[in-house]
Amino acid sequence: MRMPASPRYLPALLLVTALAACGHEAPFMNSRALDGSWTSPQLPYDIALNGMIGLAEDVRTKALQEGDPVLRLSAVEGPRLTARQWMPDGQWHSVVMERADDGTLQCTDGSQRWMLARKPLKAL
After folding, report:
1. Which residue has the higher pLDDT, 90 or 22?
2. DSSP one-letter string for 58-120
3. Could you point out which of 4, 64, 70, 74 has its C-alpha 20 to 30 Å from the C-alpha of 26?
4. Structurally, how many domains does the chain consist of?
5. pTM over 0.85
């Protein structure tokens, strides 16, 4: 016959349950929710985001070609994302992005700020 768990294990059980519950991200901000094309007037390229990788599209600089990787998401936590992004200085920067109420992504690398907005869908 099995004996019920001792009350002395209850705090550990509650801690494990609480930690497991905190391990999920907000459903509206998984990386797939961001899939699609994004644009910014501050950048010389638009971004085609697919999962955790963003590729350059509508490139407006000779330093890049269509399809070059320009964004790599590393973490999604609620409305905040962290990533590495290729910038016009030719370097990869660590960036923090936060989803605003209007659906844009407000971005910073610590020294500059820019905004990414979804590109409208093209008519067929």
Report:
1. 90
2. S--STT--TT-EEEEEEEEETTEEEEEEE-TTSSEEEEEEEE-TTS-EEEE-SS-EEEEEEPP
3. 70
4. 1
5. no
